[in-house]
Design goal:
By secondary structure, the chain is mainly alpha-helical. About 60% of the residues lie in helices and about 10% in strands.
């Protein structure tokens, strides 16, 4: 027997499940990000570098810009920019919550942004700790979640547009 659908042809409750999934991903990202940042701040002195994997070092640095050090020194500007971006993202999600898998990148983006906002509000800057070779700026789990979330959001929206879902 087929599942019941509403007037738009979509299953009722799908949006509710998307919201729950997005909130769960957001919570996981914020929790892991804050836990790892705490461990880094507790175990690595500022400026110290520890080898983690070949070509990857763990460091304890501060960043007062956005992801990967962009827009440094503009604390108020960064906060306003992030707030606007989050409002647009949540608004888009609210209108398209039934798009398959849109909850995943939305949760990753919101969780990453909140993880870094928590640092900004509590410490005045963001703790970054992953240092890659070739001069790549240090970053953290929140930054990685934001970056991956952007790529996934594009893929989910593009797929929905091509398939009409």
């Amino acid at each position: 027997m087929a599942a019941a659908t509403d007037r738009s042809g979509r299953r009722p409750g799908r949006a509710r499940l998307a919201w729950l999934g997005g909130v769960a991903v957001m919570g996981l990202v914020v929790g892991l990000d804050q836990l790892v940042k705490h461990v880094i701040r507790s175990s690595i002195a500022p400026g110290e570098e520890q080898r983690f994997l070949p070509g990857v070092e763990l460091v304890n640095t501060r960043n007062d810009g956005v992801a990967f050090g962009f827009l440094p020194g503009s604390h108020t500007g960064v906060t306003v920019l992030i707030a606007i971006a989050l409002c647009v993202l949540v608004g888009y999600f609210a209108l398209h919550a039934t798009v398959p898998l849109i909850w995943l990148p939305t949760g990753m983006l919101v969780g990453g942004a909140l993880g870094n906002i928590i640092d900004r509000l509590s410490r005045g800057s963001v703790t970054d700790f992953v240092k890659l070779p070739l001069g790549w700026p240090p970053f953290n789990l929140a930054d990685a979640s934001i970056t991956i979330g952007i790529v996934l959001l594009y893929l989910v929206i593009d797929h929905a547009r091509r398939t009409g879902t």
